Each structure stands twice: as C-alpha cells, then as structure tokens.
C-alpha cells in the first residue's frame, strides 16, 4: 500500500479566496483516491488543498483496511498527527475510509484527539459533520452503510485540474464475499451508478482537459446487473468510448468469474480502450480458489487468458496474488508458480495472506506459519522478476506512443509517460511535453519500467 497525496496535493487549481487549508492523505486503492478527489470537491468552497500538515486547518486521512500492514500504517500516521493538534488547538482531524468503517467507535476511544470518523459512504455529509465540530458539539461518528447507496452526481470541478488522467467510479461496494476480503463489509453491497451520471462526469473531466479516463469499481464486469440497466459493462464501455475528446480508456478491477466474451471483444473493437487488463487470479490452485470463494478454477482462468490473447494478441496482463492462504499446501503453491510461468504477467501485486476482521477465512483453523508465507512470497517475487524483465525486454527497440504523465519518479531531470499497455517509460525531455502524446523508442528494459528516447513530438 502506498501513502498517496502526501506530496502531490497542492493548492494548484483552486484560487485561494481566503479559504482554509485541507491536508488530505490517502492510503490504498484507486477507489480511495477517487473518494479523496470527491472529498476535495465537496469541500472546495471552504477548503484549499495543502501538502503541509503543519499549516492545515483540517487533516483528513482516507484509510485502507485491505491488509493488516496497511491498517498499521494508518495508526502510525494518525498517532503522529497528535502533535499538530497540540500546536493548533482549532485543528480538526478526521479519519475516513475503510478503517473508519471497520473500527468506528473504537477509533474514537483509542485516539481521543480525533474529531471525525466516517465511512466511505458518508463523505457526502462532511460539510454538516464539520459544522457540528466547529460549533463545539463534540466528535462525530458516521458509519452508516446503506445497501442501496448511490454515489451522487458531481457538481464541483476537479480539485487539481490534471492534463492527463482521471478516475471515474462506475459502481460501489461488492457482493462477492471472497473469503479473505473485507471490502463487502466496509464498502457495502454492489451498487452501479446510472450510466447518464457516469457519462456526464466523463464529459465534465474531458472538458477540463483530461486525456485518459479509468473506470473504477470493485468488480466492473458486473456493472448494471442489479439496477436492471439496459446495457452491461461492455455496453457502457462502448458508450464511453464514443465520448468526443476521449483519447484513452482503461478500467479496473475485473473479477474473472464475470468476464464475458463481449468484454474481451471490446479490446479488439474499441480504439480508445488500452490493451491492458488487470485480472486478479489470487491463486493458481483450484482447491485454494474454491476455499477463497472465487467461483472459477485454474483452468477457467487460463482459458480466459487464451481467449483474450486471441482477440488482442498484444494485451498486457497484470494480476493480484495471495500466498499462504489458510490450508495452502506445497502442491497448491506449486500450482501458483506454474500459473505464473504459463501466463507470463507483466506485473503482479503479491501479498502474504493476513486475516481481516469479519471475513470467513479469518475463522479458518489451518493458518500457514509466517515463515512459510515469507518463503513463498520471496519465491513468487523472484520468479516474477525474471518473467517481468523478459516481458519488458520484448519491448526493446519498439516504437511506442506514450502519454506523458509528469516528472520521472526516479530522476527529477526526466519525464515519465505510459504506453497503452500500461508500461511506465522514463525519458529525457522538456516539461512542456507533460499531458501530450509522443512517440518514443524503447531503448532499455528495467524491472518495473522502460527507458525511452523521444522520436516525435
Ligand atoms: S471481488 Fe472479492 S476481492 Fe474483490 S472486492 Fe469483492 S470480495 Fe473483495
């Protein structure tokens, strides 16, 4: 898990007409990033973003509880914020997101200097919550979880006009109850947004200059199922792909059990849809997948990969993997290793299993010793290092169109762009290229990125 927005929030994009300062730290997934964007939009009339917690009037920490390590990081950060409250007694500190939803009142008891605790669905009530605290009426706890919750339409501009990319949430929550996952308990049941709201939000951000849109949901493939929408996710993709001025389209995350032939064909048919699919496999063992409640087998997953490659031979595949799930045997783990060798993902996000409160797997009685989990994680990461490098090396010498996203994270003298296949390319070039499409030649493959040379701009 990364700590997001610590360094990249700024006052840019809002004229500061005497507004107060909001420091907004985001942990976790893109859904949390989107929620943070919404928080900044909801508060934009009164608050301007700052990257300095010590000059903030309001500090909000948007938290993630997907893994134990992420949760511990939140407690560590929030503990460190206490000193700011001592320095500035009027400062308001709030905890949002999945840890807030999961822990609720326990957070207020454990961290009594906190003023606000609110779950992901409650961000829209923030102005009223703030009034309550400002009027000296005490701390606020809001963790109501409605199963028919609908994300309201956007009415404010993006907090930081971004010439490059934006996320748009198309659905919220999840009904799948994978045995290891806390999401259905902290984000509620799956609810899709009306497609007209989604299309209106996309038109708005494209008007603000965005080039690339990523549609977000815990399981985008089941979009529309519960609202009886006239079109499924591929239908929505086709409508979005036709939006004028949209240059690149991506989506995440896809559950393998809900991927349809029609969706796979979109990679062949839609020019704006980038050739990258993040398809979490979680394990290469059918036995483990069954215990995880994933509703697909190893063979079904491999058949999906074959079919996808038949429609889009150049597609980049990435995945999520859990090692050391309760009951995972050496044989099961070997199945995971062999699946990695068969599919040859460009990148994997692999983690040791950690029990999460409320989940079914936390109550299983055959947990794997920590040292075995550590060994298995090391083994998959070492294997993937080789596979990833081989995949990246296959791009050497190729000409690729990239969208220039900003300054390189490795070298402030260089720029960073992204191919349609989602590979990061670092290259020397002037800052005026940020937000533009250019062609580069790939000159060297590294473990998680490529080096390029500008050809045309
Ligand atoms: S599909 Fe499974 S892993 Fe993904 S959010 Fe839903 S319950 Fe969690």
Question: Can you give the mean pLDDT?
Answer: 90
Shape: globular
The SS-based structural class is: alpha/beta
Give the name of the CATH architecture of the largest domain: Alpha-Beta Horseshoe
Number of strands: 20
Note poorly predicted spans: 1-15
CATH class of the largest domain: Alpha Beta
Percent helix among the residues? 25-40%
Instruction: Write down the domain tally.
Output: 3
Instruction: Give me the oligomer status.
Output: single chain
Query: For the record, what is the CATH homologous superfamily label of the largest domain?
Result: tm_1862 like domain
Largest sheet: 7 strands, mixed
The number of helices is: 13
Which percent range describes the beta-strand content? Answer: 15-25%
Explain what the structure shows.
It is a single chain. This protein is of the alpha/beta class and 457 residues long. The protein has 13 helices and 20 strands. The chain folds into three domains: 3-142, Rossmann fold; 165-393, pyruvate-formate lyase- activating enzyme (Alpha-Beta Horseshoe); 399-456, Beta Barrel (OB fold (Dihydrolipoamide Acetyltransferase, E2P)). Helix 12 packs parallel to helix 13 (370-393). Residues 1-15 have low confidence and may be disordered. The structure holds iron/sulfur cluster (SF4). Residues 174, 176-178, 181, 183-184, 218-219, 255 line the site of iron/sulfur cluster.
């Amino acid at each position: 898990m990364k700590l997001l927005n610590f360094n990249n929030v700024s006052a840019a994009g809002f004229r500061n007409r005497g507004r107060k300062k909001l420091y907004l730290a985001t942990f976790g997934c893109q859904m949390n990033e989107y929620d943070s964007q919404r928080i900044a939009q909801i508060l934009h009339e009164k608050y301007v973003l700052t990257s300095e917690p010590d000059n903030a009037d309001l500090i909000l920490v948007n938290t993630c509880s997907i893994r134990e390590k992420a949760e511990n990081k939140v407690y560590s950060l929030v503990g460190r914020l206490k000193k700011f409250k001592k320095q500035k007694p009027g400062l308001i500190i709030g905890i949002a997101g999945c840890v807030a939803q999961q822990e609720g009142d326990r957070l207020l008891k454990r961290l009594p200097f906190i003023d606000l605790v609110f779950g992901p669905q409650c961000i829209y009530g923030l102005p009223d919550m703030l009034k309550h605290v400002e009027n000296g009426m005490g701390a606020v706890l809001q963790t109501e979880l409605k199963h028919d919750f609908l994300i309201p339409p956007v009415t404010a501009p993006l907090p930081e006009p971004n010439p490059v990319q934006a996320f748009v949430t198309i659905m919220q929550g999840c009904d799948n109850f994978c045995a290891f996952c806390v999401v259905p308990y902290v984000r509620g049941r799956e609810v899709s947004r009306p497609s007209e709201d989604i299309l209106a939000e996309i038109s708005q951000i494209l008007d603000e200059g965005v080039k690339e849109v990523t549609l977000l949901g815990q399981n985008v493939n089941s979009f529309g199922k519960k609202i009886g929408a006239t079109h499924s996710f591929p239908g929505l993709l086709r409508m979005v792909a036709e939006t004028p001025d949209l240059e690149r389209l991506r989506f995440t995350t896809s559950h393998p059990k809900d991927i349809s032939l029609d969706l796979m064909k979109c990679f062949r048919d839609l020019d704006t849809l980038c050739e990258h699919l993040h398809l979490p496999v979680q394990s290469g063992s059918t036995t483990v997948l069954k215990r995880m409640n994933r509703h697909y087998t190893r063979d079904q997953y491999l058949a999906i990969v074959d079919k996808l490659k038949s429609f889009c031979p150049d597609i980049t595949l990435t995945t999520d993997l859990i090692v050391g799930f309760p009951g995972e045997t050496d044989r099961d783990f070997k199945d995971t290793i062999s699946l990695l060798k068969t599919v040859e993902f460009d990148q994997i996000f692999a983690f040791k299993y950690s029990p999460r409160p409320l989940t079914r797997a936390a109550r299983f009685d055959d947990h794997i010793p920590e040292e075995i989990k550590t060994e298995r994680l090391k083994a998959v990461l070492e294997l993937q290092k080789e596979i990833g490098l081989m995949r990246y090396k296959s791009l050497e010498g190729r000409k690729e169109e990239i969208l220039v996203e900003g300054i390189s994270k490795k070298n402030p003298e260089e720029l960073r762009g992204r191919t349609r296949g989602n590979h990061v390319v670092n290259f020397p070039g002037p800052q005026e290229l940020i937000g533009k499409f250019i062609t580069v030649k790939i000159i060297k493959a590294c473990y998680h990125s490529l080096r390029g040379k500008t050809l045309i701009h």
